[in-house]
Amino acid sequence: MTTTAFSDSVPYQSPLLERAGAAEAQTTGSAIDAAGVAWHYGNPLGEQRKAHQSTVVVDRSHRRVIKVDGPDAGPFLHNLLSQKLDEVPSGFSAAALDLDIQGHILHHIDLSRLGTAFYLDLPADQAPSFLDFLQRMIFWSQVEIAEVDLAVLTILGNSIEIPDDLAPVVVRTVDWTTLPRLDVLIERTELISAVDKLLKAGVELAGLMAFTAERVRAMEPEKSADLDSKSIPHEVPAWIGRGDHPGAVHLEKGCYRGQETVARVENLGRSPRVLVMFQVDGSAPEDPTPGSVITAGIGGRSVGRLGTVVHDCDFGPIALGLLKRSALTADNLSVDEIAIMVDPTAIPHEDESKAGREAINRFRGK
């Protein structure tokens, strides 16, 4: 296997933490994947604002990258993951999920194809188990699987241009509903040089806090922070591929573990919970704790689970959370005695018609 910057005994530290003003995230009590990179560089809200005014680059080199190559790489991944990958062209990019047999989410991956190879990046804590799973599933497939020492940089803004001398291994356009986003995978040894070239081209450096705030706005969950062991794909509407949006789940393919749950929910019903964005009471002395129970009403009945909490340059404190559908319009939502409110734009507007349910009703003469 290719030697990488990650070690079981030594925590990863990005060299960009040596930049002026760099402050590492305080991850104690939080499941947000932020260890080893800068949370901000001295101006956290201003850095996110810059992303809306111009262009910023965010160091996400704490993620790990796995390369799957060989004649069978496409069909091999197609049979294991929720994304349709058997015949995608070079340059294709999307997300994908690895599910267990009940359809619960085990791994969430961003991926790109370049030639015959697929590059898959995911949070560091998910990489060892995912790599082990892939290697155990090779059997007779003609594939080579190894972790490679690439670093992920994310560029956010409205005028993204890659300098000619940057020489990235992979450039991936991500289908977000907020700011335009480009993920660039480069040789880790070129991390500092690549950032300097982007800064010279007019891009500004921003910390992971800016990226996290935009991720919450885009309602893209991070598995360790925003989901739990019971989470299924339909709890995240943006992950279901529809029309020109590839999402992370292709609805017209089968033959992967957990597919039965995806098909059943898609055709017969809806997930009991759904991921939404919350506005958080900014007058509270402390932010609510990720993983806390969301309650509703005077009696404080449990209606959900809070995930990522972050301060946004426009909205103040915002958060993601899994909420029971029955509580989407509930009054008096709170967590840790702090008032929260479902952002009206985050309430899903899904097609109520279900092909499977309609077929059953026709069979029953309804």
From TrEMBL:
The keyword Aminoacyl-tRNA synthetase does not apply. One of its GO terms (biological process) is iron-sulfur cluster assembly. Keywords: Transit peptide. Residues 275-343 form the CAF17 C-terminal domain. It holds the Pfam family Beta-barrel_CAF17_C. This is Folate-binding protein YgfZ. The lineage of its organism: Bacteria, Bacillati, Actinomycetota, Actinomycetes, Mycobacteriales.
